[in-house]
Amino acid sequence: MAFDYDLFVIGGGSGGVRAARVAAQGGAKVALAEEDRYGGTCVIRGCVPKKLMVFASEFASTPTEAQAYGWDMSLGDFDWQKFSGKLNEELDRLEGVYRNLLKNSGVESFDARARLKDAHTVELSTGESVTAKHILIATGGHPVRPDMPNAHLGMVSDDIFHLKKLPKSVLIIGGGYIACEFAGILNGLGVEVTQYYRGAQILRGFDDEARGLIAESMRENGINLHLGTNILEMAPASADHSASHAGTASDAAMGASAGDAADLLPGAGARGEPVWVKATNGAENVFDAVFFATGRDPNTADMGLEEVGVEIGRRGEIVVDEYSQTAVPSIYAIGDVTNRVALTPVAIREGMAFVDTVFNGTPTPVDHDLIPSAVFTQPELGTVGMSEEEAREQEPVEVYCTSFRPMRTAFAGKPDRVLFKLIVSEKTRKVLGCHIVAPSAGEMIQLAGIAVKMGATKEDFDRTVAVHPTMSEEIVTMKTPMRTA
Ligand code: FAD
């Protein structure tokens, strides 16, 4: 049977664009449908704008540090409008780059929503139907609000990038990396940040000691972090609520205030208005904005997936094998929609492995082992491999760990601490996990990740000469295990 295309990709985000482009460069006839903006979550409402906001927020601490080093410098006002205008220009530029990457590789783009009609046919919202020998679903995910009355009053991460102005106060619900990163960003930009997380510690799944230091640093930076606390009720902040609750003891303790929040978001209606919140600990407060960072679900709704036989998992994800193939042989899925490891470089890897498997005659399973990653809190967390808690469940380990005040901020009289930690197998001597909490830990872990991926032993680390004076030299100078487990 003759098909219109060799490959039809649904979704123009990190994974989809890479797969489409590489397959087309290899000679395949490829088309791609994107219903929103090219570049997807990472470029338009994830990694890129977030990292630029991290950079913006970090300047807040520059003047006090500079003063300690002898500079006459003071902190002026932060101009959100100026920043967000420039941010949007940059995102427009990047979207153009993504569109051109596709065009220059010979990929035909459809600005349309796509759904499956059968194992080889895609229906587009433009009314067209096209056929393809292979279909790749790379539709990503979306942020979810909790199932509770008035949850629509809360913002999600997508909204943050569209704020017309910054709220004076915000309540962030959640303890994952997105919640913690935005707590740091907004705090740095001068917003009064309160964060509720129902669990006992933020950043579940990461190394406990690293989590502890980050939570402590967040509090030191002024974030009002409440663990074991969740949102119980929320409602528009009526005059009633403001009058009865603003300025109460609990308000003061929680550091929240009702500012002039109206009109935070363009066209959002109630979502840009102040919100009254009752917490599980009984505290009642009014915040200019509530931000739910309570998880993301795969984009699989209304795509005709089950009808054509694609298996959907418990969280709405597309179930795939190690080659990213679904239960329908002609249909593959990569990236966040498969809910494996929801990170941009992983979606890209999965896209490349798909092309190798299907178009290059090299069946390539995706390697999800030892993926380095970073959390852009202040300080950052860089991590690769197992946490101490995971590793000691599997085998006897030695734990090498040091925490200290780094030279740069110690000189400025700041209390900031950093942490360097290695988890080492007693038997094989391999470094099973490396965890760094420090400024630029994301940059450091990329390099440490190579050694860990290569299977470096503790003795390999020891043989490496230190770079002095740096923070990261500690990673090769820790001689005695702090404990065995
Ligand atoms: P996406 O990039 O989400 O792309 C999917 C695309 O499909 C979207 O453009 C969507 O509009 C389109 N689409 C959906 N349904 C259809 C349809 N039916 N028809 C046509 N088009 C459709 N990862 C990191 O590695 N580092 C980070 O620092 C980081 N920070 C993040 C911060 C935030 C706030 C968020 C939300 C995510 C972050 N991520 C980060 C995760 C990263 O953005 C994702 O893992 C990555 O974008 C997944 O790529 P993808 O190709 O699977 O999907």
Describe the structure.
By secondary structure, the chain is an alpha/beta fold. The chain folds into three domains: 5-142 and 297-358, FAD/NAD(P)-binding domain (3-Layer(bba) Sandwich); 151-292, FAD/NAD(P)-binding domain; 373-484, Enolase-like, domain 1 (2-Layer Sandwich). The chain has helices at 14-25, 40-45, 47-58, 62-68, 80-104, 157-160, 177-188, 208-220, 239-245, 249-254, 305-308, 344-358, 388-394, 407-411, 441-453, 458-463, and strands at 5-10, 30-33, 108-110, 114-118, 121-124, 129-137, 141-143, 169-173, 192-197, 224-227, 231-236, 275-279, 284-287, 289-292, 296-298, 331-333, 373-375, 380-385, 397-404, 418-425, 431-438, 483-484. The strands form five sheets. Strands 1, 2, 3, 4, 5, 6 and 16 form a seven-stranded mixed beta sheet that branches. The chain has a six-stranded antiparallel beta sheet with strand order 17-18-21-20-19-22, sandwiched between helices. A hairpin with a 4-residue loop joins β12 and β13 (284-287). α1 packs parallel to α12 (344-358) and α3 packs parallel to α7. The structure holds flavin-adenine dinucleotide. Flavin-adenine dinucleotide binds at residues 10-16, 33-36, 40-42, 46-47, 50, 113-114, 138-140, 157, 178, 299, 303, 335-337, 342-345, 347.
State the end-to-end distance. 61 Å
Shape: globular
Specify the biggest β-sheet. 7 strands, mixed
Computed over alpha carbons, the radius of gyration is 24 Å
Number of strands: 22
* Small molecules in complex: flavin-adenine dinucleotide
Proportion in helices: 25-40%
Stretches where pLDDT is under 50 for at least 5 consecutive residues are 243-259
CATH architecture of the largest domain: 3-Layer(bba) Sandwich
CATH H level of the largest domain: which superfamily?
A: FAD/NAD(P)-binding domain
Number of domains: 3
List the total number of helices: 16
As a percent range, the share of strand residues is: 15-25%
Query: Could you report the average pLDDT, rounded to the nearest whole number?
Result: 94
CATH topology value of the largest domain: FAD/NAD(P)-binding domain
CATH C-level name of the largest domain: Alpha Beta
By helix and strand content, what is the structural category?
alpha/beta
